[in-house]
Amino acid sequence: MNLVVIGGGVTALAAAHRATELARERRVDLDVRVVEARDRLGGTIATERTDGFLIEAGPDSFLSEKPWALDLSRRLGLESRLVRTDDRFRKVFVWFRGRLHPLPDGFQLLAPTRLAPFAGSSLFSWRGKVRMALDLMLPRGGGALGDDESLGAFVRRRLGREALERVAQPLVAGIYTADPEELSVAATVPRFVEVERRHRSVILGLRRGLAQAPLPGTSGARWSLFVTFADGMQTLVTTLADRLPDSAIVLGQRVSAVERDGGRWRVTSSEGARFEADRVIVAAEAHVAARLLRYVDPALATLLGDIEYAGAATVSLGFRRADVPHPLDGFGFVVPRSEGKAVLAATFSSVKYPGRAPAGHVLIRCFLGGALNAEILREDDASLIGRARAELGDALGITAEPVLVRASRWPASMPQYRVGHLARIDAIEHRARALPGLHLAGAAYRGVGIADCVRAGEAAAEAAFV
Length: 466
Ligand SMILES: Cc1cc2nc3c(=O)[nH]c(=O)nc-3n(C[C@H](O)[C@H](O)[C@H](O)COP(=O)(O)OP(=O)(O)OC[C@H]3O[C@@H](n4cnc5c(N)ncnc54)[C@H](O)[C@@H]3O)c2cc1C
Prior knowledge:
- The protein is an alpha/beta fold.
- It has helices at 10-26, 68-75, 115-119, 126-133, 151-159, 161-175, 185-188, 190-199, 202-212, 234-242, 286-292, 298-305, 349-352, 381-396, 421-433, 450-464, and strands at 2-6, 31-35, 47-50, 53-56, 62-63, 82-84, 92-96, 99-102, 226-229, 249-250, 255-261, 264-269, 274-277, 279-282, 309-320, 332-334, 343-347, 361-369, 404-415, 438-440.
- A seven-stranded mixed sheet has the order 8-7-16-17-18-15-19.
- Strand 1, helix 1 (10-26) and strand 2 (31-35) form a beta-alpha-beta unit.
- Helix 1 runs parallel beside helix 10.
- The N and C termini lie close together (12 Å).
- The model is unreliable at 214-220 (pLDDT under 50).
């Protein structure tokens, strides 16, 4: 079987790797090519080691709650290289009105589950707290079963405006770098939709759920909620690539056309490479898939092109520990949109994970951009770094010069799961099924995280072997 995988991010590599596993199991003669436009693998995953700092330009961890990346790491023999978060510092702060307020203990992404820390929290006003508690009494709401609504509408309806503006927007919409008024609640936090459907009250439902099944990472689970590799996320990329046959990786070839050729497929690149394939997995971004498939199925291409993307940037700053007055007793902070800051969130990387900074130093990483602040990516690196430094100065009291600075840009890299996303993906999958031998996978469809991408890539490889 000739298999061409378009893209060289984690989705593509997981797909190619799963294909080689299946070929071995089923004794199929497989010729696999992973065709990547850039001269490096990994897509948004990029780790750098400099002067004792370990800097993640893109993702810094993956969720262990979703099992697929963890399972793959085990199959690759990487379990001993995984590291967990230092859960002594699990606290997350919200930078609100000039102060870092700890998110109250027991706050589950959108809603409180423990009364005392919530009641005593400085993050919410008394009116805001009473409004959140109203969730205990409110009837079920929303539209008809199966209808989607925005994260903004859902949280406002159940828990009120403060819960939305001070927590849901910076925490949930922050992960998706999205506008909460556009973000699909069904596609991003389906658990909360299900909790309302089953229990009516989100707070009561979460409390009952916790009593039955404690969250992973909170009660003696082997892994913390987020895990990474001692040598950074690039470990996953290089190990996957190493397990593929030597001929599999084709770098520096930007695929420009995918065409049907009888029962087979022809894939060509702008640089002139040409591949004949029985199966093709398109694991590049949806806007790329849309362009590549516009003559194969224009309606499918339109649906793919409708998935919008936002850009993001990260600025990593290394400081001498003595130059940071704040105790850094948490994983970092998020910033509500209403604060009008450039930084969406900051991670205290060297507190959260071991081995990120040399002795006596700390590494802090700021996240900027997203759908609500797209224009900031037009600024040059010096300006992004200047903003990150100034805002870290305000939040943490740092005035000293950093000893290390890195800025990385990821334009059009974050798919936006807008209201109706799941229906759009159903339609995309329906049309794609009518194209035998062609499969789509990646962050644009059914989950944006690394774990989701591993699952999507592996599922595409399995479908290619049916
Ligand atoms: C700054 C940032 C931080 C993140 N943090 C986290 C995190 O901590 N945890 C987490 O789970 N997720 C995180 N994510 C999300 C996660 O990184 C991505 O969803 C995931 O890596 C996407 O993988 P992918 O392979 O689907 O796509 P990508 O990594 O985008 O890879 C797509 C690849 O296709 C290539 N390509 C594009 N066009 C062509 C073409 N015509 N021909 C050939 N190749 C082409 C691209 O060059 C690229 O290498 C983060 C994302 C960003 C941007």
